[in-house]
């Protein structure tokens, strides 16, 4: 969201223009009379963000330009104009949108996570796979920010039978949607599966060798204990 124009027109001379945000309690957004902007009563929230097309006012253009548009700017606005020909009111609804810019998908350990930030209105998130499967998302979290935008994230843990699937995450709003794909998920951490057969045989051999050494030491200690008893026995 950057800037927008709220249209308004009139007919006549010596115009008085008042813009109000009706949905926020009829607060003053911008005023113009005596051939210049009059901002003494402008609501603080709109300071430095409003302007008229001053070079076109004489031709009947009373449109308002609003910059740095925020979510709370959304709502109903009233344009009031007064000339020697009479008074007029017109209304316009402003809808604010913060489109999805980027969807991130990544795998950490066995968990695949999809996320996006700074979205308005409230987004939705769906998972899909190729080939198709019955994968279901877990822990879908939507958090509002101080600017009334939304951050969304979701995660899932693929099963061992789903390692060959291509995972896609789609985040969408009424305005747009974006998609991200993870082509080759890493297999779940499993040390026995990650060892080469030769490494596995060497590991097993090492374990057996260690057990043999322990058995020999135990036999020696037992023999020394028996021998000590024999030497201490009286004749």
Structure described in brief:
The chain has 235 residues and is an alpha+beta fold.
User: What ranges have pLDDT less than 50 throughout 5 or more consecutive residues?
Assistant: 190-195, 230-235
Q: Quick one: how many beta strands?
A: 15
The dominant shape is: elongated
Topology as H/E string? EEEEEEEEEEEEEEEHH
The residue fraction in helices comes out at: 10-25%
- Which topology of the largest domain does CATH recognise? Immunoglobulin-like
Question: Biggest sheet, in brief?
Answer: 5 strands, antiparallel
Backbone CA Rg:
37 Å
Strand proportion? 35-45%
CATH homology group of the largest domain: Immunoglobulins
Number of domains: 2
Quote the average pLDDT: 84
Counting DSSP H or I runs of 4 or more residues, the number of helices is 2
Task: Give an account of the 3D structure.
It is built from two helices and 15 strands. It has 235 residues and is α+β, with helices and mostly antiparallel strands. It has two domains: 3-94, Immunoglobulins (Immunoglobulin-like, Sandwich); 104-184, Immunoglobulin-like. The strands form four sheets. It has a five-stranded antiparallel beta sheet, with no helix packed on it. Strands 9-10-13-12 form a four-stranded antiparallel beta sheet, with no helix packed on it. It starts with a strand and ends with a helix.
């Amino acid at each position: 969201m950057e800037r927008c124009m709220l249209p308004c027109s009139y007919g006549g001379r010596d115009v008085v223009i008042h813009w109000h945000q009706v949905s926020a309690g009829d607060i003053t957004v911008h005023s113009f009379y005596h051939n210049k902007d009059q901002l003494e009563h402008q609501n603080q929230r709109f300071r430095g963000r409003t302007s008229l097309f001053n070079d076109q006012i004489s031709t009947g253009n009373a449109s308002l330009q609003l910059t740095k548009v925020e979510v709370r700017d959304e709502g109903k606005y009233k344009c009031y104009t007064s000339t020697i020909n009479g008074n007029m009111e017109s209304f316009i609804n402003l809808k604010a949108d913060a489109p999805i810019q980027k969807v991130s998908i990544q795998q950490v350990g066995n968990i695949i996570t999809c996320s996006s930030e700074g979205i308005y209105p409230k987004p939705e998130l769906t998972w899909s796979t190729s080939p198709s499967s019955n994968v279901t998302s877990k822990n879908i979290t939507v958090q509002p920010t101080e600017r009334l935008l939304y951050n969304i994230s979701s995660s899932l843990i693929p099963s061992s039978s789903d390692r060959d699937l291509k995972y896609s995450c789609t985040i969408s709003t009424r305005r747009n949607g974006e998609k991200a794909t993870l082509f080759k998920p890493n297999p779940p951490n499993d040390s026995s599966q990650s060892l080469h057969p030769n490494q596995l045989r060497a590991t097993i051999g090492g374990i057996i060798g260690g057990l043999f050494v322990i058995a020999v030491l135990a036999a020696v200690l037992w023999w020394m204990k028996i021998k000590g008893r024999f030497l201490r026995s009286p004749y």
